[in-house]
């Protein structure tokens, strides 16, 4: 088995374990206070993305974050994640927003997740606006200072 395949399997199993440990997510209306706070943080993050400032968006990431953008290799570390956002914002017509539809925080209060939908628009190679809709999953970890930072961030398109 190749090192890349082992890494991919390890990451996949790790994310699955976190999701299972956190438990099945509750719809937004049924979230407890900790989950609502995490969903609010995710909403603030989407608002930061509306500013098209890659540094502002990357401020929500932990230093050792792993970002899984669609159609690209995983980006490891905050600097690499910032570069991903600079690529997204390279096109001046590009805009992205997302909405958490589920959130949950582990009983220990150390890990949580948000999941939901996103919308991205940009100009395609032919100059026409492309509108993309998809889904997202983010694993969050409470930091020593009590703040939450994203440690795994994944999104992919619904397009076939």
Explain how this protein is built.
The chain has a single domain (3-157), classed as Nuclear Transport Factor 2, Chain: A (Roll), CATH 3.10.450.50. The chain is globular. With 160 residues, it is α+β, with helices and mostly antiparallel strands. The protein has a 7-stranded mixed beta sheet with strand order 1-4-5-6-7-2-3, sandwiched between helices. The chain has helices spanning 3-22, 33-50, 54-58, 78-90, and strands spanning 26-27, 61-68, 75-76, 95-105, 111-123, 129-142, 148-157. Mean pLDDT is 85; it is low at 1-28. The protein is built from 4 helices and 7 strands.
Core attributes:
single chain; 160 residues; alpha+beta; Nuclear Transport Factor 2, Chain: A; seven-stranded mixed β-sheet; 4 helices; 38% strand; disordered N terminus
Number of helices: 4
Total strands: the figure is: 7
Helical residue percent band: 25-40%
Silhouette: globular
Question: Strands of the biggest beta sheet: in what spatial order?
Answer: 1-4-5-6-7-2-3
Strand composition percent:
35-45%
Quick overview of this protein structure:
With 160 residues, the protein is of the alpha+beta class. 35% of the residues lie in helices and 38% in strands. The protein has one domain: Nuclear Transport Factor 2, Chain: A, CATH 3.10.450.50.
